[in-house]
Amino acid sequence: MSDVLLKVSTEFLQAFADAWNQHDADALMTFMTDDCAFEASAGPEVCGTRFQGREAVRAAFAEVWATFPDAHWGNARHFVCGDRGVSEWTFTGTRHDGSRVEVHGCDLFTFRDRKIALKNSYRKNRPPT
Fold first, then answer.
1. Which pLDDT score is estimated for 123?
2. In the list 47, 77, 82, 123, which could disulfide-bond 105, CB 3.0-4.6 Å?
3. Which helix (H) or strand (E) holds 16?
4. Dist. CA 52–CA 82, nearest whole Å
5. In terms of Cα–Cα distance, which of 99, 98, 93 is closest to 71?
6. CATH value at residue 26
7. Rounded to whole angstroms, how far apart are CA atoms 88 and 51?
8. How many domains does the chain have?
9. Which one, of 96, 100, 93, lies nearest residue 129 by Cα?
10. Confidence of residue 46 (pLDDT cuts 50, 70, 90)
11. How far apart are CA 107 and CA 113, in angstroms?
């Protein structure tokens, strides 16, 4: 059995999701490798916007809460297979101008050394209400 299977589990991904809902960037970074990357669901590149390295990833994570102070990821469903994993969720959040977003989305993960090396996010493109 692979080392990654001994530590990375659906419980691991749920704890990661819980840290998102607690708006706790320090906790989130304990799940990430030192050379982690985050590919956001939007941006100018084919992968969205790619943030590379702990400082850039942490800042990108914090920007989500700055944009949506009440950000929440609910109805989470996770699975792990070897060094890959998926979390599906429903994101809800309200921008400072009062516009509200509610969309389904998912994260595709690549694990290394029992941590997240890549968090690749996708979400439906639905206009705010």
1. 93
2. 123
3. helix 10-21
4. 23
5. 93
6. 3.10.450.50
7. 21
8. 1
9. 100
10. confident
11. 19
CA–CA separation, 57 vs 86, rounded Å? 19
Distance CA(88)–CA(122), nearest Å, equals 9
Q: Quote the tokens at residue 2.
A: 């692979």
Beta bridge partners of 92: 72, 102
Residue 129 lies in a domain: no
- DSSP H or E stretch at residue 6: helix 3-7
Q: What is the DSSP string of 26-86?
A: HHHHTTEEEEEEEE-SSSSBTTB-EEESHHHHHHHHHHHHHH-TT-EEEEEEEEEETTEEE
The domain containing residue 108 runs over which residues? Answer: 3-123
CA dihedral of 59, 34, 4, 15, whole degrees rounded to 10: -30
User: Which amino acid makes up residue 114?
Assistant: R
